[in-house]
Structure formats: C-alpha cells, structure tokens
Amino acid sequence: MPRQISSFSNETVKRIRGLRDKKQRKSEGLFLAEGLRILAEGRDSGCLPEIIAYSSAGGIHPLAEEIIVAAEAQGADVIETTPDILSKMSGKDNPQAILGAYRQPESGLAGIDRMRSPLWLVAQSLRDPGNIGTILRTGDATGAGGLILLDDCADAYSVEAVRASMGAIFTQSIAAARWEEFLPWLRSGVGQLVGMSLQTEHDYLEPIYEQPCFLLIGNESQGLPEPYEAECDLLVKIPMLGRADSLNAAVAAAVMAFQVRASWRNR
Amino acid sequence: MPRQISSFSNETVKRIRGLRDKKQRKSEGLFLAEGLRILAEGRDSGCLPEIIAYSSAGGIHPLAEEIIVAAEAQGADVIETTPDILSKMSGKDNPQAILGAYRQPESGLAGIDRMRSPLWLVAQSLRDPGNIGTILRTGDATGAGGLILLDDCADAYSVEAVRASMGAIFTQSIAAARWEEFLPWLRSGVGQLVGMSLQTEHDYLEPIYEQPCFLLIGNESQGLPEPYEAECDLLVKIPMLGRADSLNAAVAAAVMAFQVRASWRNR
C-alpha cells in the first residue's frame, strides 16, 4: 500500500530532493528519474525504482499503475503525494506526475564487457550534463554498449543527464575512470581507439572502422588533450565548411557514431 | 568615448536586460549576444552591435578592444560598467565581460536566396532554443545557407539559442514562416524537400540528395505532422538499433545534414 505524504518536511521528501545534489547521490547510491516515459523505459529494461512518488491529482495513467505495482512487489517505498510536494522533490514548477529513485549500478571499467557491442562511446572531461544525456541517447540509437566517462566529466546520473538520455540511462552501461586507468584497460584487449581531431588529414568518411570501436569525444571547449590524441589508433576529421571549427560535442559524437555504423554496412 | 554606467536603474541597463524577453526583443528589433567568442564571430561576419557593454575589471582583451573601437566608429552606444551590472543585464551570476545588443535582420522568406547554398535546414515547431542554436551551429559547419523556422518555433534570437549557436547566428540566414506560406514559396522554385520519418523504408544512407536540399526537422516530441510528411519529395529513415525510436532533434538534424553532404562527395 502506498504511504500518503502531505508534509514538505517529511524525511523521504527531503531525501529525494537531495538527489539533485551530486554528493547526496553518491552517498545514497541513488539517482532520480522523472516522468512516465523515462520510468517506462526503465521498467522495459528491467529497472524498477527503490522509491517511487506520484500524484493521482490528474488521474493515474494505466502504465504508471503497472510500474507502481511492479515496484511495490519488489519492495519499493511507494509514496502518494500532492503535485506541490512533487514540485518540491523535483525542484520544478511543473513537475511530472511520477518520479522514481533508482539504484546506481557499479560504474568501474570491470563492469564493461567490450565484446558485448561493436561500438563504445568514451567522453573526456565533458562538462555539460545535457550533452552526456544526449550522447547516451545516441549510444542507444546506434547500438553502442555504453559510455565511458574519463577524467572530470559531469555526472551521468544528474537530473539533466537522465532527462536528456530519454531512458538510455537504463540501457547503456556507464563507467567512470581516469585516463591512466582507462588506457591499460583498453590495451588489455581488442579495440580501436578513434579520436576526432583537427590535426589530421583523415576524413571521417573514409575508414572502415574496426570492432569494437572506442569513439573518443573531447571536452566541449578544449577538445582532446594532445597526449590523448597521440594514443589513438586513428584520428579522423569531420570537415567544417563554415566559419566555425567545431561542433557541439553531442552532435560530433552522433555524426561519428552513425558514420562508424555506416562503414560496417557493406562489409 | 564610452559612457560610464554604475547605476542598476539606468535606462540602458534595463533595456538590455529586457532583451531576455521575447516581446521586448521583438519591439526593439534587437537581440543579445554575450562573450568575446561570439562577438568576435559577429565582427568577422560583418556584424557589429548597436549597444556594447563591458567591464574592464579583469583587464580588456585586445580583441574586445578592437570590437569596441569598431562598434563605436559605427555609432554604437558604448558602455563601460561593473561586473555586477553586467550580471544584472545578462541575468547570470558569472556574466561574460562583454556583451552586445545587435539588430535582428529581416526574417521573411523573401530574404532567402535558395540558390546561394545547396543545403537549407527547416525546423517545424521546434521548442527548445538550445536545439535551435545547435542546429544553426551545425548549419554553419555543413555549409547550409540558413534555417527556416516553421509554425511555432522557439525564438532563434533568444539568449539560449544565440549562445548555443556559437556565433552561427551571424553566418546563417534565418527566416520564420507558417507552413501555409512556406509550401508555395518552396514550390515556386527548385528544391527537394526531405523529411525524416518512421513511416518509410528509405534508409537515409541510400539517396544522392538533390540541390538545393531542404531538410525538414520535426518537433521534439511529435515529429512531423502527417500532412507535412505527405508534401515531402522524399522521406528517409535513420535506423534505430536500440530501444528508443527517436533521436534528439538537433542530433537528427546533424546526422542528416552531414549525410546529405556526404552523398554529394562522389558526384
């Protein structure tokens, strides 16, 4: 049976609200996902929330009902509350009618089974959580295995990243590592490390990429550090026809990821 | 000579701050761009601000100095002020040290010379200003002529869109129109209207696209309305390999725009 919560100062309300903060997410090991569409993606990927909060003010969608019942059966803390309190939890004026707090999976490189997919995305010091979520969504669309976050990236489990992922947070493996750990791990098995760079004449349309392909995406304003480029097995350039010499990081990742897949079409 | 402004209630301060509001932008015919990088793109594209405000608190960059001198020579209102007042103007805690208010160009379809470029991007009811700015940036990178905004799109001159465009707001032609105006305009000349759709078996990698190609991008959550798809000369599908059936709108636009260019490589 759902607990009814109508007090803003309730401990669970505060706890969920706290998940907007990275430190809190880390110490709790949880993250927040909002809205029926993303919760449904989670359920379809076998992920149910440990805490679920909803308002029945506008009626309950049958799909929401299913997710609530399934989460409860797995021992979730189920909370029925008001739109105002959901608004407090989510920090938004117009909150979604349902939200869930999910367990963060382990996120070491040991959890990455590279043979599971021919394509992996690797981001280095990417600062915008919206870009990280969008890259996860692109990873899902291109059949990537997951996203490896190198060095000082924004948190893939932040509310903004989860939202931009449109549910791919549940389908993509996620690992975080320093470059110094990543490189020996990468070289301990097969895999082609491909970087995007302005310092090369190799056009991105020319190669047939190897499998598994690890696509390295640099920081939004700096691109890849030179020593990282030097370790790549292949550097490619996306030609720029206008004034600018760069693309949005999530756009560059997508153009490359789709081209890597396209190169495998006629093999 | 720059005017010194140190009062938060100064009329120009209020006027610039007002440019964060769409109605105000429309009635003034101006828009706001922030930061040296974007202002430099503007200058390099032949655009100088009508009002320019800066703080010399951290020293003035030589490039900023050049832009200030050039704007002043063209009769701009040049304002030297404090970081606090720049913060008030821009609505941000950590404002850029320089910002400019620029004249919005005319934005009717009559201003679009379709023969100037083989590629044009067309967005329909796109709601996220960040997506619009990112699409402008992609348009610049792919040598598109500009972006046509159909129906109820977010404002390309909003602060978020200008920021995400990374200066492409100055290099891309921008027009706004209803579908009912756009279609007869399109059919009054040459051009292939290409839509992305799930209702087709045509893979996006197969065609050699015609020139000029008008690439039609649908709303973030609804995609293209069916009657719009019916008017397209070609519908193509980007295959999805994961659970999701859609991409971020700016990502989809970029994957298509780069593929259109790629299809012209070996002609």
TrEMBL record, chains A, B:
GO process terms (BP): methylation; RNA processing
Domain of life of the organism encoding this protein: Bacteria
Pfam families listed in its UniProt record: MRM3-like_sub_bind, SpoU_methylase
GO molecular function, one term: RNA methyltransferase activity
Domain MRM3-like substrate binding as annotated: residue spans: 10-100
UniProt entry keywords in alphabetical sequence: Methyltransferase, Transferase
All residue ranges annotated as the tRNA/rRNA methyltransferase SpoU type domain in the record: 119-257
InterPro entries: Alpha/beta_knot_MTases, MRM3-like_sub_bind, Ribosomal_eL30-like_sf, rRNA_Methyltransferase, SpoU_MeTrfase, tRNA_m1G_MTases_N
SUPFAM superfamilies reported in the protein's UniProt record: alpha/beta knot, L30e-like
Similarity comment: Belongs to the class IV-like SAM-binding methyltransferase superfamily. RNA methyltransferase TrmH family.
Protein name: RNA methyltransferase
Organism the protein comes from: Sphingomonas edaphi
